[in-house]
Structures are given as structure tokens and as C-alpha cells.
Design the sequence.
């Protein structure tokens, strides 16, 4: 009897760990989005984020920094923000990057990115089935998204993302290019933006 109770408890904990993130994901809307960019193109500061869905620290930045940064800098008109895909050298990471382009086609990349980072790290997180299910959860037109994913038209665009990152001297993710000149890491992002705003 004790063995049965222990097995039941272990199975319950495993199921809870697998399902809890799905229950906690909130669909947040991002205003003034165009493809991978959000905010006003005429903002005094441009910030480009280089990030990967397989990068654990990128996941932390997306979940803990992005909302506050968007509220305090992007939505105030101070920063025009753009995301650049830096997939790891594996099939699933490439699939997630492709899927993000399909979300960007509908100007819902940031809503979709929330889903990608929520499930990143789980086995099979970036399977075709899951990528399509995330599009539904994020509020995209799922049929258009599915068709885009099947077409797989974005190999050249992803290659250009990687070339761009290399051209600015990217050495790791997440990194941020500010006003096309200064490449900084997460801890330097807000102090650098604040310094530019106060000059």
C-alpha cells in the first residue's frame, strides 16, 4: 500500500511539472508590432536583441526582463526594439526560428515568442505539432501559420540573421546592439539606455 502511494505521488509530481507551465502561460498582446520590431521607428534609441530559443539565459531574459523593459522604454517611445534569431546548430532550434518568422508574418512574433520560451527545454518542445499548437495559444491564424511552416521559406533570412550577428561581433546570446554601434550584455542594457536618454 505504501509503495502504491509513493508511486502515485511521484507520477502526480511528474505530471504537475509537465502541465503546470501550460496552465500558467498568459496570452499578452504587444502593440505597434511590425514583424520582429516593436515600438516607434523614430524612437531616439534602437535596441536589437540577439537571442536563441535553446539558450537558458535567453529564456530568463525573455520572461523576467522583457515586460518591464517594454513598459519602461518601448511603450514610452524611447526605444525601438528588434529581435534577431540566432538558432543553435540543431534541427529543433532551426524549426523554432522558422516558426518565429511565420508568427512575424502575422505581426504576432512577440506573442508567439512567449510560447516558445515557456516550453523551451522540454523534450519535443519544438516539434511541428507543438509549434502549431503554440500558434493557436498565441492567437495567430493557425491555418496560415501551418502553411508557412510547411513552406519553410526562411532559410535565407535565418542565414542573414547569423551573418548580421557575426558582422557586429556577436560572441554569445543574449546580447543587445544599441544604436547600431555598441554591443552589450544583459546587465549593461538598461544602464546604457539610461545614459543615452540622459545625455
Sequence:
Amino acid at each position: 500500500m505504501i509503495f502504491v502511494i509513493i508511486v502515485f505521488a511521484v507520477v502526480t509530481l511528474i505530471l504537475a511539472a509537465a502541465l503546470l507551465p501550460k496552465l500558467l502561460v498568459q496570452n499578452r498582446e504587444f502593440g505597434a508590432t511590425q514583424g520582429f520590431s516593436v515600438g516607434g521607428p523614430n524612437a531616439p534609441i534602437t535596441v536589437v536583441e540577439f537571442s536563441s530559443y535553446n539558450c537558458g539565459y535567453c529564456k530568463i531574459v525573455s520572461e523576467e526582463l522583457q515586460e518591464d523593459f517594454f513598459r519602461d522604454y518601448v511603450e514610452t517611445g524611447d526605444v525601438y526594439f528588434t529581435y534577431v534569431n540566432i538558432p543553435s546548430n540543431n534541427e529543433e532550434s532551426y524549426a523554432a526560428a522558422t516558426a518565429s518568422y511565420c508568427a512575424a508574418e502575422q505581426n504576432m512574433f512577440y506573442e508567439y515568442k512567449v510560447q516558445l520560451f515557456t516550453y523551451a527545454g522540454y523534450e519535443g518542445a519544438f516539434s511541428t505539432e507543438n509549434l502549431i499548437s503554440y500558434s493557436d495559444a498565441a492567437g495567430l491564424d493557425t491555418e496560415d501559420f501551418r502553411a508557412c511552416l510547411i513552406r519553410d521559406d526562411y532559410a535565407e533570412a535565418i542565414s542573414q540573421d547569423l551573418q548580421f550577428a557575426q558582422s557586429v561581433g556577436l560572441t554569445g546570446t543574449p546580447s543587445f546592439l544599441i544604436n547600431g554601434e555598441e554591443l552589450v550584455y544583459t546587465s549593461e542594457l538598461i544602464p546604457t539606455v539610461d545614459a543615452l536618454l540622459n545625455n
Confidence is low (pLDDT under 50) at residues 15-30. The longest helix spans residues 2-24. Strands lie at 33-34, 37-38, 45-51, 79-85, 175-178, 182-185. The CA atoms of residues 176 and 184 lie 5 Å apart.
